[in-house]
Fold this protein.
Amino acid sequence: MPKHLIVIGGGFAGMSAAAYLAASGRKVTLLEKNTTLGGRARQLQARGFTFDMGPSWYWMPEVFEAFFEDFGFRRADLYPLQRLDPSYRVVFEEGELDLSADYPTLKAQLEAIQPGSTARLDAFLHEARTKYELAMRDFIHLPNLSFLEYLRPSFLRALGKLSLFSNFRRYRRRFIPDGPVGQIMDFPILFLGGVAENTPALYSMMNYVDIGLGTWYPEGGMYRIVEGMRTVLGHVGVSIHTGAEVKGFAMEGGRVRGVKLEGETLPCDGVVAAGDYAAIEGMLPKHLRNYPPAYWERKTFAPSALLLYLGFDRRLPNLQHHNLFFDVPFAAHVEALYHRPAYPEKCLFYLCCPSKTDPTVAPQGAENVFVLVPLSTHLPPDGERERGLIRQVLQRLSARCGFDVQGHLVFRKKYNRNDFIADYHAFKGNAYGLANTLLQTGPLRPHLRNRKLRNLFYAGQLTVPGPGVPPAIISGKIAATLAASEIK
């Protein structure tokens, strides 16, 4: 009889772990508390609009290609993909920039908005590419249970190229001065949940991801990835249970013997928990947890967010697919996120308008808009302040479009910190995991293996490698490999 493993959580990490475990010959059951797979990447359909509820950036395309190829599939047979050009628009206090997908053109654009800023851009991106290729080849797939994993010749030879002992901002300033171009180079760090001054310079690799590998879009939206991964799960024989919220564990002899649901316990030989790490730990007796509650309180999490799903009955001019509204003081919003938690007086926000690229996500002649306003995880939802932020977003959008967009708003739904907690058990309502700060990288992140229960493993954006869709897929593979080596 094959060993039976249960995977908790149907997000990208959970689906990845389940697929690799099943392909290794294990019997696998995947439990998801919500009614559909995808985790934060669920889909909302209303009034003819199709919204991606969470991730909207498709970066590191080779990670997706590799995942599907591992199971005999071609990504192109599951969903079409196109590179966006321009990659995205940045709106500054004075002017805007549509970042070209063509590097020589982009370099000229950057030089035009900040003369002298690109003198060392080639060198900066060369080092970024070197870091990325070293990471993908030598250490992004390590389980990071110990620093000893890095005592290997390939890593030691590369040590001087990784900028491990500097923060990103200090490092970036060696190549690119502050100003609009510096702000553009700092932007990808936001995907890691932190800010430039507390993120290791190692992660300048994200600038190569942005500029070198490009920004892509799967036709139909990000949920197409979920559908593709579900096809893989069916192919390898994973048993999928949605609407199955885990309540606890049955344990005996230093091992998990079963997973408790409402009214039943499913016996198993091991568990990969790809839900919120802190929430999973909270289901265990204190003496069997890897970390006490105070540990999570000390950690730096990615922000929470106020999300808006907006449907308009007419086209909105002067927008691209991805739009970063950096037209208010950046430092003030960052201060409100990380240092002095508060609702920002003037908010930065990200606006995605996928109907600019994909007519299938909105009715004919209409526009699909997703907005993300980052907010501190330390703020309780405040309806009045949220309404103020929504008014601010719509006013700035109206100014950009040249007319009052509110008169054309036919669908609106908001999603806040309480929703992240209710839907995903997200610690403090974080939007996308544990930040990759200087002290929360590699072996300093929460471990993939429970130290007390030998057959309980963890995966997802609170573990290694870190936040983001491609890292979550990689995390699931690492956890599956670890679990398969233990449970034979």
Q: What stands out?
A: The CA atoms of residues 101 and 214 lie 7 Å apart.
